Amino acid sequence: MRESIRAWTESIETFLLDVIFEQRRGYVAGLVRAILYSLSKIFQVAVKTRRFLYNVRIMRDSTLGVQVIAIGNLTVGGTGKTPVVEKFARELKDQGRTVAILSRGYRSKPPPFRKRLVNKLLFQEDSTPPRVVSDGKSLLLDSEAAGDEPYMLASNLKDVVVLVDKDRVKSGRYAIEKFGCDTLLLDDGFQYWKLRGRRQDIVLIDRQQPFGNERLLPRGTLREPPSHLARATTIFITKSDGKTEELRKRIAELNPTAGIIECIHHPLYFEDVFTGQRCGLELIKDRKVASFSGIAQPESFEHSLTALGGNLVYSKRFADHHRFSQQEVLNAINRSKKRQAELIITTQKDAVRFPKIDRRDLPIYFVRVEIKILSGAKDFQDCVRKICFR
């Protein structure tokens, strides 16, 4: 039942994305676009009203007395946020901060429905403690319970606390009281205005699709109007190719004071999904490879494989955050073999959702990446220095 609901949800999501980016034509698609446009106008009013209510203090934010860094984006998905969160957490930890990453755990396993219903009916605050993905010593949850990104961050950052809860004021308080944290990183937190205090707002902009199709949800992929970029203290241009003059000019018009950092997702090595064996980047050079992914922008990932010298003979794409079944992996192996692929490559974010399989006709590796700063390194160090009060 759960699998069929997930499959139906993903098919609707794929259809809507095709409609939003006008890859579907015809009467039905046009009608859906008209409906989405009307809804986006309502959404715009809701966003501006909510912001106004926070500004005039009708809706109250909370201060926990520690440093808060919100890392997020104006658009939905695909900016490469997780490696940036990891870079900040690692740098702050190296500077002596006690860091906790607070995530809402997108598509993680929610609390029991009965408990959530009772809390809503009785207007009670959820007293359930946040889920502890990592206590800074051990990995305590799997990817299904934690969510893809929190699990991946906890796997890569062994000495950083990672908590999951929709209420990040609650999880922030928990991080301070239980783990003595003095720095809270809000993963996907630019729109989370409930937690303020000493706060830095870091916004990521994808060079390839800076503001999506320039329309708000649900007609487009913008969560807020581009003018709201003015709140950012630092802006990362991700997936940069160095040709960003026009984008920088647009950013400067929206926010003339923010530091701008350009970066790329730099591949480090390949790691076998099942055995953990690591290989250098020369692994795929001049070899036939297949790609397998369930991410927001698979084209960027596939291009990175060809850039490393791989000959991409087959690619299988799923909806973002898709949880793979054993049969789907086996089908991908069979089709890759038919195209004479020598190995299958996936992303680390996808690898955490892989099921165990008995048949391994082809080796399956994920590519481990990190953020590499191309320009604005001084702005990054200044940003870290401000956080650390140095």
From TrEMBL:
Keywords: ATP-binding, Kinase, Lipid A biosynthesis, Lipid biosynthesis, Lipid metabolism, Nucleotide-binding, Transferase. GO terms for cellular component: plasma membrane. It catalyses: a lipid A disaccharide + ATP = a lipid IVA + ADP + H(+). Pathway: Glycolipid biosynthesis; lipid IV(A) biosynthesis; lipid IV(A) from (3R)-3-hydroxytetradecanoyl-[acyl-carrier-protein] and UDP-N-acetyl-alpha-D-glucosamine: step 6/6. Its EC number is 2.7.1.130. It holds the Pfam family LpxK. It is an enzyme of class 2 (transferase). GO terms for molecular function: ATP binding; lipid-A 4'-kinase activity. It comes from the Bacteria. GO terms for biological process: lipid A biosynthetic process; lipopolysaccharide core region biosynthetic process. ATP binds at residues 75-82. The keyword RNA-binding does not apply. Transfers the gamma-phosphate of ATP to the 4'-position of a tetraacyldisaccharide 1-phosphate intermediate (termed DS-1-P) to form tetraacyldisaccharide 1,4'-bis-phosphate (lipid IVA). Belongs to the LpxK family. This is Tetraacyldisaccharide 4'-kinase. It comes from Pedosphaera parvula (strain Ellin514).
